[in-house]
């Protein structure tokens, strides 16, 4: 399908600053045994302990265990490197393992050795978010938890994984935005709950037990690491109640209520002057009180130390320890509680009952994981081992996820896909064209193997390669060398003799208006950090073996945005009085380079609305104040909202020449009350269609769940008046009234 025989590829990159450059954690080792308690086969006397009796309920077992421990032993179980009690048959346990997009070596709980040299490394989460595929989110989690269990069985991983990261990607300068599903709370909520289900749900359907334990982080309003001297360790995020409840909190709420996550991690920062890890309202009040968390609350690592030494929030370390535990904290990543809990009790700031409550939540999680059930190799997942890590099916799934997430942002007619039989020379230029580890993003593990972009392209056509720069900072551009290898296709876009395909490998958006406007740059692809099989996935899309269906999960702003918007301003909504433009597609009022949801296909999909209401009536009691007075909105409370829903049916037809998937995003624009979003995502679905085939997409819209908004005081409301539904260019208006 390509018109040109000489094509230039530019592989560009936006530098995403992360906190730590984690190195390879690899050592030769012989087979090991997993860490577990209640090994009655080696110590028959343990049968006499109720906490080792698998026939009893979790609470009974936990109470029995707690009652057998001394105070010092109890304190040993409120930190991540938990100290075992040999007299009770309990070994040391490391709580900190990571599995953001595959089993990771970031935490001390995971080790890669000659026994298991690598694990499947899926695309970084931002690119997975771009798939808008909820079933895929869960499937990835299921594969990751299987590999995690396999590694646990040979002593190379724990059972508690501090993933996913569901913070909102609020500002394009946040380097860790790559770890998140994007800027939208609905997408982040659906991703978080689905990934958690994939990690945690067991194949036997037992909902009271866990395959592995997930952890949703970092709670809450956390997305600043280091900006102009403002550090994550002491940053005070000043957040309105409205923004907190309609932007920052929904993913965590969904993680707990819809995903039944086993843990939530509180963040370093303060929210409105209070450290999140020592805020009773946020921890005991919301997570455990309102949302009924069945699990444990853990700090980000050394958060308690930062509360005392960096934030100076308390006068003594003991006060910090007491405040955190009394606020609902159960586990400290770090040694702060090891060092200061006893002193807090001695001073009367804490009592043993407070410690009992914390460790009971921790032990209950381990009970649900089977940690106290004896040898895990005799349990449900006991047959898993090294053979179940990096399987061909798992590696192929990593490739599938990458190509489903890749976003085609520009495509001049006749540019992509390229035909491998028509291409005579392919010049591949750029420092990211032949990278390996860069493709993984951060919080990575050792992958099964790598396929670089250059390797992926070379598998289909002959290529010539020149990095163009020594590294991604590109202090000195090697233009002459690039020209030589490009031969007839000049490396400079405005004098190139063939089309230029710009491939952007990055953990966020950037200002590429120049490329969008330049007719010589015929196509632009955003490939995120595409994981171990990224190069193969990129080639699949470029040569048309796969029809792209990814959509941007974040706004791409012009450079002027970051020049004038302080990263410390947490307000989501614009302020016309100051010229502040707001944040994310829901509120931002300024120009964009590319918008949330943008993405092209090699096919064209037509949409036709088959079913949608023109009027939605909300029943109210006769004495309701809104029957006698004019109301702009009504409370979205249970008695009002029961069974108020409607269906949207959309017929989709593939009128192109290639089979492909249409990513259907359903948005709504509510009436302009309560500083409502200009539009917000209601839901998304994917539909695969062959050429000229059509299918039906159905959305069920719950009025109070999907159409509601949060008012200035944090109350959820349903706006009365005209609502507009959007799917692509198609719009439909309907009224909500009493």
TrEMBL record:
Gene3D superfamilies linked: Glycoside hydrolase family 3 C-terminal domain, Glycoside hydrolase, family 3, N-terminal domain, Immunoglobulins
Domain Fibronectin type III-like stretches: 662-731
InterPro entries reported in the protein's UniProt record: BXL, Fn3-like, GH, Glyco_hydro_3_C, Glyco_hydro_3_C_sf, Glyco_hydro_3_N, Glyco_hydro_3_N_sf, Ig-like_fold
Pfam families: Fn3-like, Glyco_hydro_3, Glyco_hydro_3_C
Gene Ontology molecular function terms on file: hydrolase activity, acting on glycosyl bonds
The keyword Nucleotidyltransferase belongs to this UniProt entry's keyword annotation: no
Alphabetic keyword roster: Glycosidase, Hydrolase, Signal
Keyword Hydrolase: yes
Name of the protein described by the UniProt record: Beta-D-xylosidase 4
